[in-house]
C-alpha cells in the first residue's frame, strides 16, 4: 500500500503549504516526554510529501539496522527528511505522540499490534517536532486514528543533576547517536541529550513511571551507564549483541554514577486512550 499523503495539495499550493509549515512553530511535544502535545488548531497541518504504508510480510525478520520508531527520529532522519521503519502500529503511535507504553490505557485494540513497514519523505530537513506532527497526520489519515489525551497528575521520577555536578563528557555531534557498545562496564552511549536519556529510562523494563528531564543540561553527552538490575537494552537484543549481566546495582545507583539523580515526584502526565483505529485501505 503506498500513496501520497494529502492528495488535495499539488503544484504551487504544495510549495506555499510547505513554506508555511517551515515558518510555523509546531507546538507538538515542546513540553517534553510525558505531557500531552500542544497543537495550535489554527495552524496548517504538517504532512509528508510521500508516504508508503505496507503490512510487514508474515515471518519477515526484523532488520537490525532499522531504527525503532519508539526510539524517536534520528538526527540523520531529521536532516534528510526521510523516515524508514518497520514495527507494530503502537510504536508509530508512540513516535507520533512522544509517548511510552505505560501511558496508554489498556487493553489496546488488536489493530495496534499489526506490523507495518512505513517509509515517509518530507522533502526537506525537519525538526523533531515537525516529524512527530507529520506522523500524527499520517496515522489520522491512513489509519483513522483517534486518541483521547488527558493530563493526569501521577507519580513520576524526575532526573536532576547531583550536588557535585554531572560526570559525563560533552559529545562531539558527528551525526550519530545512540548505543555504541555494550561491555561488562555497562552500556556506552554517544551524543545523547538528557531529554533522550529520560525517555529511554521511561521505557525500561519494570520502570512503572514516566521519567521527566529536569537537569537543565543543554547539549549532548557521551557516557557509560553501569550495569544494573532488570536492565533491558532493546537495541542490543534486537541486533544480537551481548546483554550486560544483571548485578545488584540499581538504576538509581547507575544514574548517580553519572552525577545525576532520580527522585520521586508528582506531575501532570499525558494518558492516552485509543478510541478508534483501522487497517489502512489499499491504494
Notable features of this structure?
7 helices; four-stranded antiparallel beta sheet; globular; single chain; 2 domains; disordered N terminus; alpha+beta; 11 strands; 283 residues
Summarize the structure in words:
- The chain has seven helices and eleven strands.
- With 283 residues, the protein is α+β, with helices and mostly antiparallel strands.
- The protein folds into two domains: 146 residues, no CATH class; 116 residues, no CATH class.
- The N and C termini lie close together (6 Å).
- The N terminus is likely disordered.
Order of helices and strands: EHEHEHEHEEEEHEEHHE
Q: Averaging pLDDT over every residue, what do you get?
A: 80
How many structural units, i.e. domains?
2
Tell me the structural class.
alpha+beta
Task: Please specify the SSE layout and strand pairing.
Blueprint lengths: L1 E2 L7 H13 L26 E6 L19 H6 L1 E7 H9 L17 E7 L6 H15 L3 E16 L7 E2 L7 E6 L2 E7 L1 H9 L8 E3 L7 E5 L8 H6 L11 H6 L3 E17 L7
Parallel strand pairs: 5-9
Antiparallel strand pairs: 1-2, 2-4, 3-4, 5-11, 6-10, 7-8, 8-10
Helix pairs in contact: 3-4
